[in-house]
């Protein structure tokens, strides 16, 4: 009876730590201890002990301005969980088929709450291409083909903070980028050839039964070889693979 009672009661300190992590995760910017304390309903003295421990194990990062954001160790735990995500398993046959047909690198990306688009599957081309991008790598929303797919089709409340920050850093306006997004929505895919010199990337969306964007499939190759014109083999096969996979996930127009 005691064991059952204890199991039902749980461990309050773990629940409080989770409350802190979730509060910081839901924020669109790093938070001060005052902001976290107010959101979690904890005193600063009590909260401070949690922050110290969470920073020690890498679940949080304390910045120079004394604000807190999610840490890299938490990202790694998420990635290990991502490896078991259903979309990765369902997409793998399509990734392999595209890789065999096009002999280009094929990658699958999903949305990561901390860093934005993140690669969770990667099938190398047999061609000698040196890319500093692998499973776990994240992509910018405004400068990568993958990012443009998420910018165009993922909920704006999730993507806008990333988009605005990148545009400000690059001296571009939201109005200019919205024009690009309209083109992506119209064409149903995105391509880019200037993010990594000499490399062209092509990306298309995968939707589920709720018409939500769940992933982006990508073809990556040498700019001198990979043709991304609308009628090209790469574009047509990528779009068809994403259409079929979306239907398997319950998507219908």
* CATH homologous superfamily identity of the largest domain: GAF domain
CATH fold naming of the largest domain: Beta-Lactamase
The profile of the biggest β sheet is: 5 strands, antiparallel
What's the total number of strands?
7
Q: CATH first level of the largest domain: which class? A: Alpha Beta
Approximately how much beta-strand content do the residues carry? 15-25%
- Number of helical elements: 10
* Share of helix, binned: 40-55%
Which value, in Å, is the CA radius of gyration?
Answer: 21 Å
Uncertain runs: 1-7
Rough shape? elongated
Mean model confidence by pLDDT: 88
Q: Please list the strands of the largest sheet in the order they lie side by side.
A: 4-3-7-6-5
| Structural category | alpha+beta
Distance between the termini: 54 Å
| Domain count | 2
Protein name: Transcriptional regulator, IclR family
Keywords: DNA-binding, Transcription, Transcription regulation
GO molecular function, one term: DNA binding
Pfam family, one: IclR_C
SSE layout:
Layout: H1 2-9, H2 12-26, H3 33-40, H4 44-56, E1 60-62, E2 68-70, H5 72-82, H6 86-102, E3 105-112, E4 116-123, H7 145-153, H8 156-170, H9 174-187, E5 190-192, E6 199-207, E7 213-222, H10 233-248
Helix pairs in contact: 6-10, 7-8, 7-9
Protein name: Transcriptional regulator, IclR family
Pfam family, one: HTH_IclR
Organism: Alteribacillus persepolensis
